[in-house]
Protein 1
Amino acid sequence: MVVENSILTVEGDDRPSAPTLEQVAERAGVSRSTASRAINGGLRVSPDALAAVEAAVAELGYTPNRAARSLVTKRTDSIALVVPEPDERVLSDPFFAGTLNGLSTSLADSDIQVVLVIARPGESERTVRYLRNGHVDGAIVVSHHRTDDLDRTLLTSRVPNVFVGRPLSVDPAEVHYVDTDNVAGGTLAARHLIERGCRRIATIAGPEDMSAGVDRLAGWRAALDAAGMPTDAVLHGDFTLASGARTARELVEQFPDVDGVFIASDLMAAGALSVFAELGRDVPGDIAVVGYDNIGVAASTTPPLTTIVQPVVSMARAAGSRLLAQLHGEPVSREPLIFAPEIVVRASA
């Protein structure tokens, strides 16, 4: 075995082996421990030594051993995006693509990778065990349900975390979360239908075990109460295309006089629009429709969908930034970051 130009080679094999930490330290003129500290964050390292190590790393093409680095730093350089939904929904709902987009943007200037963790129904304990066992440094939780109990179990763990959407099972003041003002969004949708002249307004609300479903329904109800209009025309879906189609059919059967409907997600609204067309109900002539999310499908439905904006990418980006601050040991306020709703008016209302 010989050493040539600080790159280790094996006799009879022309392929150079990867440079070692010892070689980096020798090239930089520092101890191995100083080189290790410089590479793993620069703590307790002088500016001159840090610059020398960085130059040696660049010259030698040194790549840290992530497994060995984790033993020193107790970090995995990865975070989990936890989605407590069935696989098929995660892969088909544009909301989750937007969430990944925003989260990736917030991590662009770091070496942290995202691990997607699909917490199928009934597997919350398994998910929390995975998070607690040090496989990731922190977690972003999105689309959670009351029965998942992820908010309660993560609250008692040491895993840094941020929720996208207000948790239902714990005091919101005790957790980090970002959200939109869903109550105000539901109110904005209902008021738009009222101002348009609708006199019998229904809603296809979201799940009753999710804060988005609860709050959007509360906002719709508040607007109708203020206008002295009935609030009995309420059906519930699960934010999917199929549930929107199913509940739209039930809506026409149970409340044939409805002339306006607030549907609590764009995917459900897309499913409902196809059923209204099938049943001969013109939109917006017979029934005006307002959705929620302003995801890509809203502009491509027939007719294009009036909807409330949920800034999914911005929410995920903010959640990622707050989690990074926690991981860096920076003070992070528990005051939630709440985005104000806006309405985009298109042909459906």
Protein 2
Amino acid sequence: MTATACPECEGAIEVQDSARQNEIVECPDCLSELEVVTKDPLVVAMAPEVEEDWGE
């Protein structure tokens, strides 16, 4: 596992070594959804909001 800080609450986040770039992980402290931006070094960012496509 690799650890980093949540960009929302600065809480510790541990990401499995098997996680891939663009994978969504959840902060155990604030429950924010985060996206793995890079793995080496580990960087996470707030995940983009999923919008409804209204049938498109």
